[in-house]
C-alpha cells in the first residue's frame, strides 16, 4: 500500500507521509488513540487486525459492519471511523476488468473462510447476486458464514461446499465467475486450488493474489482460454476508495495505476 498511497498523496500536493506501523494483536484501540494524538489523518488496517479494528472504532460504517471487517480508518475530531473498501473495491475491480457488473454474475468463492473471502462473499450477498457458492477447506467455518450471508442477501441462492464434495465440479460449471481468496498460489510450488475438471472455457477467473501475477489457478484457466485477472486491480481500487475517505473530492486512480504498473 505505501507504494500506491504515497504517490497519490504527493500527486495531490498533500504534505503527508504514508508509513507502516507494526502493531501487536490486542493493541489496536490503544494504537488508534496514539495515532489520533500524533495527528494522523487515518490508516489502513491489514491482516490479522481487520476484525479487531471493527471493535476498536467508535463509529463503524454500516457496510463495514455487514462485511464484518474494517480495513480503513479515519480519525475525525469526534470519532474514530471505520470503513471497509475491500468489498466495494472488489465490485469495481470486477466491473473494470471484465466489463460486467458483479451483480449480474453467478459467483464461486474458493477459500471463503479467510478474511478476504468473507468480505468478498458478503459483498456478493449485498449485491443480491443470483447464485453464490462458497468453498472452504475447513468446513466448520461454512455454517456460520452461510448464516451471515443469508441475512445479507436473502434472495441469493447460497451453496457451501468442501473441496471433496461431489457437487464441486457441477457447481463450478454453474457459475460465471470463479474467485480465489485463499492464500494458495502465493508460494512457489503451490498447486492449483481447484481440482481438474472444475474450470471450463467461458469462466471468468479472478485471483486476489497479485504476486506472483500468474498463479497456478490463473495458469490453468489461461490454458482453457478463460478470461483471467489477478488481484492487482483489487489492491488499487480498495486503495482509491480508502484515499477518498481521507481526502474527499480526489481521484487518485490514474496515479495509483501508474505507480503499480511495473507489477502488472
Ligand atoms: P486470513 O485471510 O483470515 O488471514 P488465511 O489463513 O490467509 O486467512 O487463509 C485464507 C483462506 O485460505 C482460508 O479460507 C484458508 O482455508 P481454511 O479456512 O481451511 O484455513 C485458505 N487456505 C489456506 N491454505 C489452504 C490450503 N492449503 N488449501 C485450501 N485452502 C487453504
Structure description:
There is one protein chain. The chain is an alpha/beta fold and 264 residues long. It is 41% helix and 14% strand. It contains 11 helices and 10 strands. The chain has helices spanning 2-11, 28-38, 50-56, 62-67, 86-98, 115-126, 142-152, 168-173, 216-223, 232-246, 253-260; strands at residues 42-44, 59-60, 72-75, 80-83, 107-110, 131-135, 157-161, 177-180, 204-207, 227-229. Strand 5 (107-110), helix 6 (115-126) and strand 6 form a beta-alpha-beta unit. Helix 1 packs across helix 11 and helix 10 (232-246) packs across helix 11 (253-260). The longest helix has 15 residues, at 232-246. 2'-monophosphoadenosine-5'-diphosphate is lined by residues 47-48, 111, 113-117, 136-138, 141, 182-184.
Characteristics of this structure?
10 strands; 4-stranded mixed β-sheet; globular; 41% helix; 264 residues; alpha/beta; 11 helices; 6-stranded parallel β-sheet; binds 2'-monophosphoadenosine-5'-diphosphate
SSE arrangement:
Layout: H1 2-11, H2 28-38, E1 42-44, H3 50-56, E2 59-60, H4 62-67, E3 72-75, E4 80-83, H5 86-98, E5 107-110, H6 115-126, E6 131-135, H7 142-152, E7 157-161, H8 168-173, E8 177-180, E9 204-207, H9 216-223, E10 227-229, H10 232-246, H11 253-260
Parallel strand pairs: 2-4, 5-6, 5-8, 6-7, 8-9, 9-10
Antiparallel strand pairs: 1-3, 3-4
Amino acid at each position: 500500500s505505501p507504494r500506491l498511497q504515497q504517490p497519490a498523496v504527493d500527486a495531490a500536493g498533500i504534505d503527508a507521509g504514508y508509513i507502516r506501523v507494526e502493531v501487536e494483536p490486542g493493541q489496536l484501540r490503544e494504537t488508534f488513540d496514539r495515532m489520533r494524538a500524533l495527528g494522523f489523518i487515518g490508516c489502513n488496517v491489514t491482516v490479522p487486525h481487520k476484525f479487531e479494528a471493527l471493535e476498536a472504532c467508535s463509529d463503524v460504517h454500516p457496510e463495514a459492519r455487514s462485511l464484518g471487517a474494517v480495513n480503513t480508518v479515519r480519525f475525525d475530531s469526534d470519532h474514530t471511523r471505520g470503513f471497509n473498501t475491500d468489498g466495494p473495491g472488489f465490485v469495481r475491480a470486477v466491473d473494470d476488468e471484465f466489463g460486467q457488473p458483479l451483480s449480474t454474475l453467478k459467483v464461486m468463492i474458493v477459500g471463503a473462510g479467510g478474511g478476504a473471502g468473507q468480505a468478498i462473499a458478503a459483498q456478493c450477498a449485498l449485491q443480491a447476486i443470483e447464485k453464490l457458492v462458497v468453498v472452504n477447506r475447513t468446513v466448520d467455518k461454512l455454517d456460520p458464514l452461510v448464516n451471515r450471508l443469508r441475512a445479507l442477501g436473502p434472495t441469493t441462492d447460497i451453496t457451501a461446499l468442501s473441496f471433496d464434495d461431489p457437487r464441486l465440479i457441477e457447481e463450478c460449471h454453474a457459475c460465471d465467475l470463479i474467485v480465489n481468496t485463499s492464500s494458495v498460489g502465493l508460494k512457489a510450488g503451490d498447486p492449483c486450488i481447484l481440482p481438474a475438471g472444475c474450470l471450463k472455457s467461458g469462466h471468468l477467473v479472478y485471483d486476489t493474489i497479485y504476486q506472483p501475477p500468474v498463479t497456478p489457478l490463473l495458469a490453468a484457466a489461461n490454458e482453457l482460454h478463460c478470461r483471467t485477472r489477478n488481484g492487482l486491480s483489487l489492491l488499487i481500487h480498495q486503495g482509491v476508495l480508502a484515499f477518498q475517505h481521507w481526502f474527499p473530492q480526489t481521484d487518485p486512480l490514474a496515479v495509483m495505476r501508474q505507480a503499480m504498473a511495473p507489477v502488472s
